[in-house]
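Weekly structure sync, notes
Attendees: PL (lead), two postdocs, one rotation student
Agenda item 3: pending single-chain targets
PL asked that the sequence for the first pending target be pasted directly into the notes so everyone works from the same version. It is reproduced below exactly as submitted, 241 residues in total.
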Amino acid sequence: MPGTEGNGSKSSLTVAVLTNVAHISAPFLSVFLIVHLSAPVLANVGGSSLSSNVMLLGREYYQTGFGERYLLFIPLTAHVASSIVKRILNLRSAPPPKITSTLSLAAYSALLVFLPIHFYTHRVSPTNPAPPIFAVGPSEVDYEFIKIGLARFPWRSWILYGGLVASVMLHAVEGAQIIQASRFPSWKLRIRPRTRKIVAGAAAVPILAGLWMLSKEPLMVFASLAERYEAAFARCWVYRF
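Predicted structure, written out during the meeting:
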């Protein structure tokens, strides 16, 4: 019927637009990840000193008024929202990827578990002006903050860092395969699922190895600042039990 065909056409157009939004926002997030994760990777060669310098330099990209809003938060919101709405719309026509697929599991675990905890403990909580935190400034939150977390809350920190890195790398590799297949089908580059997991694991190794190197360094922070760091972690329920 004409009405049904019209609705189907509108739905297909909407799905196509949402697909474009999800794909276009992905490179912005990829650039952020490269900048953000280069710091722990470089800990393998330069320790916390080099990592802190690289992190502070990277903040000029993603933690300015313009950069954070337009290069991180807006692309992240667009990527997540378009993917969710597309999944809902696809329920009426073609079945979307299973929620148990690697792509979906990695996305939901990062979005609902690891990313909120990471953002709260590393960005929101240190800015609390109440004692004993007293609003740790951005210039004070360097890789000594990470080292305190690894030293004082070892198993929780490793689970959270490991889970975040693993879920993000898996989602990135799976998503890259989808974008390549839809945007550049002539390349005919089809990577098997097992190989994609190996690639994601290989990408995660230098990041986690850098954190391991940091965990083996002695703490180089004043006791008073270390207490403020610990208090910032302790504001999150994960670090209180």
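Discussion points:
- Residues 2-62 form the longest helix (61 residues).
- The mean pLDDT is 91.
Action: rotation student to compare against the earlier draft before next sync.
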